[in-house]
UniProtKB/TrEMBL annotation:
Organism: Pseudomonas lini
Protein name, as recorded: DUF115 domain-containing protein
Domain 6-hydroxymethylpterin diphosphokinase MptE-like: 189-352
Length: 430
């Protein structure tokens, strides 16, 4: 033990004894640590610089300036080398600084190498592991280096932080003033006027069991089972997302309801033949050609997006939750129809078996396997390839599930991402 480590840990043991026990078993020896020098110096962990190597203090000041100056409570995600914490604690109006550890081994290593007593001893500081809480806290600053280095225990919070940080950028395509969006909504107007209101479906299946079927690769494990269940007289309601429709049909499985929200969905994804007895639930961004061709009942609804604000005032319709993916309104529809139990199929949010989707070739639906530079934990607790937007969709589904404790959610597979709030289905999840 270094002299720094003993003094740092002594403070932590006095203030947060339970956390100190956890820190003492963190294995910093597994990290590749190097000193990186420039105009100043910093620590590099596994090739990632924790801070600037030129001017750590100036960098910390810039980071602190991104947070509201008058906020009495601030959250820092990642411990870094202590620079941000020291900068924030200079604020006279700061009453509480929560410091959330994103990588326990990295923090343990820093405690060995540098004196951190100044901020650890400040009575305004509260220290905790990020993963001890299920949701992020605002306002916050997340150290970019530790978003990359976050360990498995804190990965769920890392995903929420990245999703929140990217929110404005991701929403740039959904400007209500965009000529393309205005044109698309106008093209669907006549159909929205004459089609059913999705609210007519709300409460129509009280206490029912519902299967919500997405297009993740693990869906392929369940085609035979789903076909057998679909042919039973007494069975769950089958709700599928648009891209799962064709793969289901190819295996002799006809869903009861298809949900679609995306203008990029075409007849290639939703062939209209033989759809007389299949309900289409859609939002007005859907291609009008798809709507015109659909033979079965059509129900229109909106999300909370500003792009529907004017249309909502003109033609009131029921609302479904959208968090970036079509799986969100599909799950919300099941809940609003009255489902007591929902089993998710193909809700992988990752690329198990090095595939992107069930029933489609690599790149057919957008993402290619080669672009997968990120990871989530699967149902076995192992890291599995994914991409950033999938992690964001997963975060939003988990938030949705947490907001509906009256419904029991099952996950049908351990191959895809672990979904907080779900239980692995005893019959389907292997």
């Amino acid at each position: 033990m270094s002299e720094f480590f003993e003094r740092n840990v002594e403070v932590i043991q006095q203030r947060w004894p339970a956390l100190a026990v956890r820190l003492l078993v963190e294995d910093a020896s597994l990290l590749q640590a190097d000193l990186v020098e420039g105009l100043g110096s910093t620590l590099s962990i596994n090739g990632i610089q924790l801070t600037s190597r030129h001017d750590r203090t100036r960098e910390a000041r810039l980071q602190a300036d991104s947070l509201p100056i008058d906020s009495p409570v601030v959250h820092a995600y990642g411990t870094g080398l202590g620079d941000l914490q020291i900068e924030l604690l200079q604020r006279a109006g700061l009453e509480r600084l929560y410091v959330h550890i994103l990588n326990g081994a990295v923090f343990a290593l820093v405690l060995q190498l540098l004196d951190q007593q100044q901020w650890l001893s400040d009575p305004r500081v509260e220290l905790l592991y990020a993963g001890d809480l299920t949701e992020i806290k605002l306002p916050y600053f997340a150290l970019p280096s530790e978003l990359v280095l976050a360990d498995d225990f804190n990965a769920k919070i890392r995903d929420r932080l990245i999703s929140e940080t990217h929110l404005t950028f991701n929403n740039r395509e959904f400007d209500p003033q965009s000529p393309e969006i205005i044109e698309c909504l106008q093209a669907s107007l006549s159909r929205v006027q004459t089609d059913h209101d999705v609210a007519e479906l709300f409460g129509s299946r009280p206490g029912r069991e519902v299967f919500v079927i997405a297009t993740g690769p693990s869906l392929e494990q369940h085609f035979d089972t789903l076909r057998a269940i679909r042919n039973q007289a007494e069975r769950p309601l089958f709700i599928c997302v648009d891209t799962a429709y064709r793969p289901l049909l190819a295996h002799g499985i006809r869903p009861d309801v298809v949900v679609s929200i995306d203008q990029r969905i075409s007849a290639r994804h939703l062939p209209p033949e033989g759809t007389t007895d299949i309900t289409l639930v859609y939002m007005p961004m859907l291609d009008p050609l798809v709507l015109e061709a659909w033979q079965g009942p059509r129900y229109a609804g909106y999300s909370a997006s500003p792009i529907y604000q004017q249309l909502r005032a003109q033609l009131p319709r029921g609302e479904l939750y959208v968090g970036g993916s079509v799986i969100h309104p599909a799950a919300d529809l099941a809940v609003k129809m009255g489902a007591a139990q929902i089993t998710l199929f193909g809700a992988d949010f990752a690329f198990p078996g090095d595939k992107t989707h069930a029933g489609w070739n690599d790149g057919d639906l957008g993402p290619q396997l080669g672009a997968a530079k990120h990871w989530v934990l699967d149902g076995h607790g192992q890291r599995i390839k994914t991409q950033l937007n999938f992690r964001s969709y997963l975060c939003e589904l988990e938030r949705f599930i947490a907001g509906h404790p009256q419904v029991r959610f099952y996950n049908s597979s351990r191959a895809g991402a672990m979904i907080a709030g779900t239980v692995f289905h005893p019959e389907f999840a292997s």
